[in-house]
Amino acid sequence: MKEPLAYHVVVHALEAEAGWSADRRFAAAVSHAVDGHLAYPRYHAAGRARAREGIGEEGVQRLVRDFLETDLNPAIAFLANLNRAESALRGYNLYNATANLAVRTSVDIKDQGQRGVRRLAAARDLRTLADDPSPCRTATLTVAASVIEHVQSGGTCLSRPLSVSHLAEILGRGYGIGADVARAIEDDWLAPLSLLPRKLGCHKRTLERSLRDVGLTAQALRRADRMMRATAGLFSGHTLTSIAADCGFSDAAHMSRSFRASCGLTPTMLVEIARDDRKADGFESRLPYGRPHGQMMHRAAFDEL
Predict the structure, then answer these.
(1) pLDDT for 206-223, tens place per residue?
(2) What are φ and ψ of residue 172, in 5° steps?
(3) Following CA atoms 99, 103, 108, 114 in sequence, which dihedral angle do they give, to the nearest 10 degrees?
(4) Secondary structure (3-state) at 125
């Protein structure tokens, strides 16, 4: 059996480490766009530590919301782009049911007024012998509540990044090496990575060293961009085969595997939720989705999968 996991935002929030630099936050977000989970023992240990410190619900909520605003993972990006609270809850519960989580949380609307959801009810299924510390429960429910509040606000409650380079700007690193590489990738996202040094006016080893110094690689930045781009594509109405080709996956199966590894969900699952959400309210996606121009169709984009 695979080691049970926990969502990275909840783990980082509960660990509440001091000294998170902007570069470290950026590198962590890029990494977790591709793999959104960390080992459950870290989650449990952090929850126990916060419980011993006596942290209150408001303290946990602030930490979680802070990390949600720098989260590039498709799970949060997708849910935050929905239009209805019911759709967001459906996606949240599906994620909990399919991802390899040690604690699976199911959330229902307990009280819904004219202005939207006011209270949630949660059930938690522990798939581990460990206990379930109170800060862990608060942090997990805060993810669901924050996403629902964001959806009900029309996408204005959380400061959500729209691209990898946009996140760098949010973190005050808009002119750092990570942002420079992210922008170069976003400008021509199907181009081979081997072209990056020439585009940026530097040697390959210099570029690799500069990225390594801030915990990044060009491959990780492109994979994060690819996942964000594909998530936006799920709202576009195009076929999964077309979205995969647009975003630089070798095929739809490759895109599906990437989503599974990233957030435990498949594009097919997410498209169904997006389709039903759009039918109910007929809204336009808030996520920007571009399709490659003819001169950008570099098939060498598949040099790293």
Answers:
(1) 999 999 999 999 999 999
(2) 80, 20
(3) -90
(4) strand
